């Protein structure tokens, strides 16, 4: 049939003017009853199979078997639907055989023409479908070309563009393809044209193919280009196909990576990157050298080949999982690597982290050979051990030296204190004071050296205890007043209220710092005052911040010297003609103590005006019994007095006293002269006078006696200078400077007299009765009191005598026994009893520690006897040994009467 289609085409064209599609439909209308032909449904016969003609009477039947095709068409014959095929068996009937044959011949001709027309229509539809498919493929191809990140273009033989996708349009800077078609590179690009012409010529005129050439195709843009010749059916070149893959970003990253690799490769640290299984991805030269391999061979190895720790089953996997959990935080580990060439291990510190890029996990490690570091650490450790051994030897040496010096010094100072209580003339008293002062100076030097040694050895121990800061400050000033005879220097105590009655702090260390700072202030002050200032700032429940300052009006400190004041062995006066002495350790020790207590210390100074040394610490407050007594005294004072007259020549002292009185709601009138004071005495009935002794010399004798008799006068006098020549015998006095508690306690005596007078009882009679009652009670107690027995265990005779004489001077109700060593003490206690034992530590035959242990193991008789160490060993370890052995207290030599008195009152 395919061949027939060509031959019938011309015939159909000739027939078509005389017989169009509707006519064909009309001709076929005779078959409508059999073939179901309609205007839109046409049946065409492809093959005819004629059989015998059958005649039945007047009817002739002509059976026809046809393969029919159904075509959906409109009235004009245009195909508008699908084509379906099916087999039909037709039976045509005629009146006669002749008419049947004639009609059959006619129908054959018509059907043959229709067959050709339907075949052409079918072929047209098929071509239309093929063209549509080609168009769809072309559109799809174009869409692909415009969306791929690759430049695609074609050129003709004149090197003009015939096609350009969107990527190519971006390269040449065009917005649509029409702006590019028909143009060559010189019209589109200003640079790199010559290189493009060379490539195009090679392809178009020599038939060469350029494949995967990396070039800078436009300024700042890099790509991989390929150019291929386009040929026709005869093999002739008719143009070229160009492809450009942009690699600019890759080029930049490659350059950055190259720079980074160069940087990493030239660093002294070893850097390597591996995959999750441990295979090396990259390593720099430092790693390659340390591992004994080549950089090029890195991919052949794993980390497990060099680190034996990771070579164990499961270790590397757990390590990677740990890194993933910590990501992005790095992990630092210490391990060992093995050099492949030398077969030697070396320690490394590895800082390693996990990183994931494009779904691939990497282990990034920065390794550092720490062989030298470990060697230095070993050397440092050995040096530290040697230093600690040397420091321990030094501490032991200092302890022994201190013990040997304290033992005779105990006798010097102890007997000086006993001798001072005997009848001596003025010259003897002066000599004795010089001996005592020299001994105490020597003791202070020993204490500084020992403290500095403790600080260096980091063995400075703190023992917080309930402390009344006012008492500590007053004690410091009393000590300075005894040590320094400077009438032109006033000592001022300024504790700003409100101030906690009691705090938890190491009382001894606080006193040490204040005394050292105040001692320096007095040394460098010839005239003026030295003031100890204290105030507190609440910091929440039971917490306060304490601020202390020691102020003076001395010479001042040069600004260039201040920064070195707290260095050890540094003194302000280092000349050969040293005036002030000292070791240069005091301020350094103070700084270390305050810092160890969590505070800081500072200094400010002006030449010719004085200095201020200040420090602050934090502490806890605690309950105190003194607050009850203070409140009781304040209530008495407020009942008896409403006003106070205050006269003092020193403004600072007067301001402090006025502040104290204000806390008790006492209105204070400050008088500048005695005349002014006298003028105010009659203005208020409930008034008392607080006067400085230096100001009362001009007061008339009659007025002075009247004020004293009426208990309206309280005289403030320097410590140790209680003059009575100008005062009536019963004048009430108070040593200055004084704490608020002591001031109110003394004023309360005036208040009691005033209140008792108002009740009709004369205070003098009351005092007399109280004195008689106290005397009778004392005599009764003396007659019925128990005698206590004390055992002194001491190998040095001088110390035995000193301690026994001190005890007998303090108490009359004590009997004393002696033992020269620990062994004698144990034997004594086996057959005797004692109420208290004073025990030396370093003794022959048996020391005090062992003696205490044995005494404590002897049963109930010795188990509860108080044992007090009295020793020249004052290191922390000495005290700890004593307490661990079972002793109850610790007294350092040289001891004072006050310390022995405190122990007797505590344990008897």
Write the layout of secondary structure elements.
Blueprint: H1 2-15, H2 21-27, H3 32-35, E1 41-45, E2 54-56, E3 59-73, E4 79-94, H4 97-147, E5 150-155, E6 161-164, H5 166-172, H6 185-188, H7 193-204, E7 210-218, E8 221-231, E9 237-246, H8 248-266, E10 270-275, E11 280-283, H9 285-291, H10 315-326, E12 331-338, E13 345-357, E14 360-369, H11 371-419, H12 426-456, E15 465-467, H13 469-483, E16 489-495, E17 503-505, H14 507-523, E18 528-538, E19 543-552, H15 559-562, H16 586-596, E20 600-606, E21 610-621, H17 626-640, E22 643-647, H18 651-662, E23 667-671, H19 674-680, E24 687-692, H20 701-709, E25 713-718, E26 732-736, H21 740-758, H22 763-784, E27 788-793, H23 797-810, E28 814-819, H24 822-831, E29 836-839, H25 848-856, H26 860-863, E30 867-871, H27 876-885, E31 889-892, H28 897-907
Parallel strand pairs: 16-18, 22-23, 22-24, 24-25, 25-26, 27-28, 27-29, 29-30, 30-31
Antiparallel strand pairs: 1-3, 2-3, 3-4, 5-6, 5-9, 7-8, 8-9, 10-11, 10-14, 12-13, 13-14, 15-17, 17-21, 18-19, 19-21, 20-21
Helix pairs in contact: 1-4, 11-12, 11-23, 12-16, 13-14, 14-16, 17-21, 24-25
User: What percent of the residues sit in helical stretches (DSSP H or I)?
Assistant: 40-55%
Low-confidence stretches: 1-56, 74-80, 574-579, 761-773, 775-784
Characterize the largest beta sheet: strand count, sense, and whether it forms a barrel.
7 strands, mixed
Based on helices, strands and strand pairing, what is the structural class? alpha/beta
In total, the number of strands is 31
How much of the polypeptide forms β-strand, as a percent range?
Answer: 15-25%
N-C termini distance: 145 Å
- Could you tell me the radius of gyration in angstroms? 60 Å
Global geometry: elongated
Compute the number of helices.
28
Mean pLDDT: 76
């Amino acid at each position: 049939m395919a061949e027939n289609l060509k031959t019938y085409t011309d015939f159909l064209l000739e027939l078509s003017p005389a017989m169009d599609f509707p006519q064909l439909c009309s001709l076929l209308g005779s078959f409508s009853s059999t073939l179901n032909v309609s205007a839109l449904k046409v049946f065409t016969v492809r093959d005819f199979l004629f059989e015998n003609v059958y005649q039945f009477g007047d009817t002739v039947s002509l059976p026809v078997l046809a393969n029919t095709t159904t075509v959906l068409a409109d009235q004009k014959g245009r195909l508008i639907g699908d084509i379906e095929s099916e087999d039909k068996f037709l039976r045509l009937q005629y009146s006669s055989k002749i008419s049947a044959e004639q009609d059959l011949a006619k129908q054959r001709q018509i059907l043959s023409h229709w067959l050709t027309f339907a075949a052409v229509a079918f072929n047209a539809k098929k071509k239309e479908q093929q063209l549509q498919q080609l168009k769809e493929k072309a559109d799809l191809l174009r869409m692909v070309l415009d969306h791929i990140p690759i430049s695609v273009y074609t050129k003709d033989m004149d090197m003009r563009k015939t096609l350009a996708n969107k990527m190519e349009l971006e390269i040449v800077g065009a917005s649509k393809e029409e702006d590019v078609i028909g143009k060559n590179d010189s019209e589109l690009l200003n640079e790199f044209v010559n290189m493009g012409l060379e490539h195009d010529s090679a392809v178009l005129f020599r038939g060469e193919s350029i494949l995967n050439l990396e070039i800078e195709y436009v300024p700042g843009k890099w790509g991989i280009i390929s150019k291929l010749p386009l040929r026709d059916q005869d093999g002739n070149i008719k143009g070229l196909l160009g492809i450009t893959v942009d690699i600019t970003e890759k080029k930049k990253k490659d350059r950055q990576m190259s720079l980074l690799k160069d940087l990493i490769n030239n660093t002294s640290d070893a850097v390597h990157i591996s995959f999750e299984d441990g295979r090396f991805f990259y390593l720099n030269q430092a790693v390659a050298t340390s591992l004994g391999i080549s950089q090029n061979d890195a991919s052949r190895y794993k980390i497990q080949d060099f680190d034996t720790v990771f070579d164990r089953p499961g270790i590397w996997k757990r390590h990677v999982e740990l890194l993933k959990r910590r990501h992005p935080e790095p992990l630092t580990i210490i391990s060992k690597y093995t050099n492949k060439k030398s077969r030697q291990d070396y320690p490394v510190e590895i800082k390693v982290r996990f990183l994931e890029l494009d779904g691939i996990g990497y282990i990034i490690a920065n390794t550092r050979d720490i062989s030298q570091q470990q060697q230095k650490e070993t050397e440092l450790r050995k040096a530290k051990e040697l230093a600690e051994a040397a420091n321990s030897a030094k501490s032991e040496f200092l302890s022994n030296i201190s013990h040997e010096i304290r033992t005779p010094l105990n006798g010097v100072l102890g007997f000086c204190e006993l001798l001072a209580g005997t009848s001596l003339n003025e010259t003897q008293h002066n000599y004795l004071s010089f001996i005592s002062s020299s001994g105490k100076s020597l003791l202070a030097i020993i204490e500084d050296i020992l403290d500095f040694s403790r600080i260096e050895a980091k063995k400075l121990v703190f023992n917080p205890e309930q402390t009344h800061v006012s008492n500590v400050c007053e004690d410091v000033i009393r000590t300075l007043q005894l040590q320094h005879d400077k009438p032109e220097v006033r000592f001022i105590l300024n504790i700003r209220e409100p101030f906690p009655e009691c705090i938890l702090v190491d009382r001894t260390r606080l006193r040490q710092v204040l005394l050292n700072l105040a001692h320096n202030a007095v040394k460098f002050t010839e005239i003026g005052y030295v003031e100890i200032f204290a105030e507190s700032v609440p910091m929440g429940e039971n917490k306060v911040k304490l601020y202390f300052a020691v102020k003076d009006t001395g010479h001042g400190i040069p600004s260039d010297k201040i920064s070195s004041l707290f260095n050890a062995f540094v003194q302000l006066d280092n000349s050969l003609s040293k005036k002030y002495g000292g070791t240069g350790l005091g301020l350094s020790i103070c700084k270390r103590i305050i810092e160890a207590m969590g505070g800081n210390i500072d200094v400010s100074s002006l030449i010719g005006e004085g200095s201020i040394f200040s420090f602050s610490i934090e502490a806890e407050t605690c309950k105190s019994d003194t607050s009850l007594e203070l409140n009781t005294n304040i209530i008495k004072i407020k009942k008896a007095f409403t006003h106070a007259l205050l006269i003092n020549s020193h403004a600072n002292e007067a301001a402090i006293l006025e502040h104290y009185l204000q806390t008790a709601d006492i209105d204070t009138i400050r008088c500048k002269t005695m005349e002014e004071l006298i003028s105010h005495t009659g203005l208020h009935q409930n008034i008392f006078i607080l006067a400085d002794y230096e100001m009362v010399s001009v007061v008339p004798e009659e007025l002075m006696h009247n004020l004293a008799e009426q208990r309206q006068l309280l005289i403030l006098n320097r410590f140790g200078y209680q003059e009575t020549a100008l005062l009536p015998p019963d004048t009430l006095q108070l040593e200055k400077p004084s704490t608020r508690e002591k001031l109110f306690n003394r004023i309360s005596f005036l208040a009691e007299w005033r209140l008792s007078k108002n009740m009709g009882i004369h205070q003098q009679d009351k005092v007399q009765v109280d004195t008689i009652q106290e005397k009778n009670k004392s005599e009764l107690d003396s007659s019925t009191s128990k005698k206590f027995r004390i055992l002194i265990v001491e190998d040095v005779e001088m110390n035995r005598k000193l301690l026994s004489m001190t005890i007998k001077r303090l108490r009359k109700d004590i009997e004393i026994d002696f033992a020269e060593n620990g062994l004698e003490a144990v034997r004594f206690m086996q057959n005797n009893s004692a109420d208290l034992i004073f025990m030396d530590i370093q003794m022959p035959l048996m020391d005090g520690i062992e003696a205490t242990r044995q005494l404590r193991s002897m049963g109930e008789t010795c188990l509860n006897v108080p044992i007090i160490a009295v020793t020249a060993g004052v290191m922390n370890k000495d005290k700890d040994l004593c307490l661990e052995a079972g002793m109850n207290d610790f007294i350092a030599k040289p001891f004072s009467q006050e310390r022995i008195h405190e122990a007797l009152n505590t344990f008897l």
